[in-house]
Amino acid sequence: MKVLAAMSGGVDSAVAAARAVDAGHEVVGVHLALSRQPGTLRTGARGCCTIEDSMDAQRVAGQLGIPYYVWDFSERFKADVVDDFIAEYTAGRTPNPCMRCNERIKFAALLDKAIALGFDAVATGHYATISTDAAGNRELHRAASWAKDQSYVLGVLTAEQLAHAMFPLGATPSKAEVRAEAAERGFLLHAKPDSHDICFIPDGDTRGWLADKVGAEPGAILDRSGAVLGTHEGAAAFTVGQRKGLNIGFPADDGKPRFVLEVRPKTNEVVVGPREALAIAEIAGERYSWAGLAPTEVEFACEVQIRAHADPVPATARVLDGEVVVTPDEPLDGVAPGQTAVIYVGTRVLGQFTIDRTVSAVPVAAGA
């Protein structure tokens, strides 16, 4: 097959590209330039897509003897990921930019261009696996190592995208094994630290970054009954479940810490309350997709995962009136509108939806 290897400059994508070459595929490496003003060097383990990363990817491609290109996707990335991130926070939601990047850049814009150029598949360094059922339908499954599993952030992939996706690291037992293989191959990046946080906010200061982009206006901090407890410097900087940075100035009546329960962008208000009020009995969303065949039942048992590193929770899902509704067997903790809920059946990723609304498991009367 003719395979386009997406090479970020990290150890995972380097080894994935190498394995694609070893498998006998005709491989071409490509690095995505996602910023018009990339930093020259990385700051510790933060950020990615820097000039240094591009050079690391190019060095590996040279060692593998494959063609290497840099594709400028910065304009598309800004519109589909960065601007979306700002819009979601402005609307009081908590977005996951990695999901949007996989959905709209790596497996939409990149894959579309690859297919147009005659490639059969795009290979990435994600830890996930693809299997085929008896009828020839492709399915997305968790990686062999659950500790490194990245199927959650791939939950946005459609059946058509799975047909052209390749994950050479999916069956690898551990990241240590990947680093060891990179060292054996002579890749200088074998000990390079993993990137983390949001790639376009490399210093990790999301609140400061948002304040610079959308501005910050003082507003009220309320309890669940509507009583004003204090003020904040901008609602967009808060997210559901947040504890730090409230600066209310006096403790709750029971002496327990308060948490952000709701962000109201239209009125610029932040609602806070006790931890138990974060318990969510139901989540639902209209923006959903299926990673392969759609479920045939209107209601079915499943597991739901609401964060990349969260544990899956047994639940019941219903598809009704253009909306996916999930009721967990036990309440979920600290769910925010805008987060992505990924639905699993066993190890298979069935699909995903963006959470539009939640139903609290604790009524207001139980404590403001």
Notes on the structure:
With 368 residues, the protein is an alpha+beta fold. It has three domains: 2-191, Rossmann fold; 215-273, Adenine nucleotide alpha hydrolases-like domains (SH3 type barrels, Roll); 278-366, Elongation Factor Tu (Ef-tu), domain 3 (Beta Barrel). 23% of the residues lie in helices and 28% in strands. It contains seven helices and 20 strands. The protein has helices at residues 11-22, 51-64, 74-90, 97-116, 159-162, 175-184, 206-214, and strands spanning 2-6, 26-33, 68-72, 121-123, 128-132, 138-142, 165-166, 219-222, 228-232, 259-264, 269-273, 279-285, 287-290, 299-305, 313-320, 323-328, 332-333, 340-345, 348-354, 357-360. The strands form three sheets. Strands 5, 6, 12, 13, 14, 15, 16, 17, 18, 19 and 20 form an eleven-stranded antiparallel β-sheet that branches. Strands 3-2-1-4-7 form a five-stranded parallel β-sheet, sandwiched between helices. A four-stranded mixed β-sheet has the order 9-8-11-10, with no helix packed on it. Strand 1, helix 1 (11-22) and strand 2 (26-33) form a beta-alpha-beta unit. Helix 3 runs antiparallel to helix 4. The termini are far apart. Mean pLDDT is 89; it is low at 40-47. Its EC number is 2.8.1.13. The active site is at residues 101, 199. It is an enzyme of class 2 (transferase).
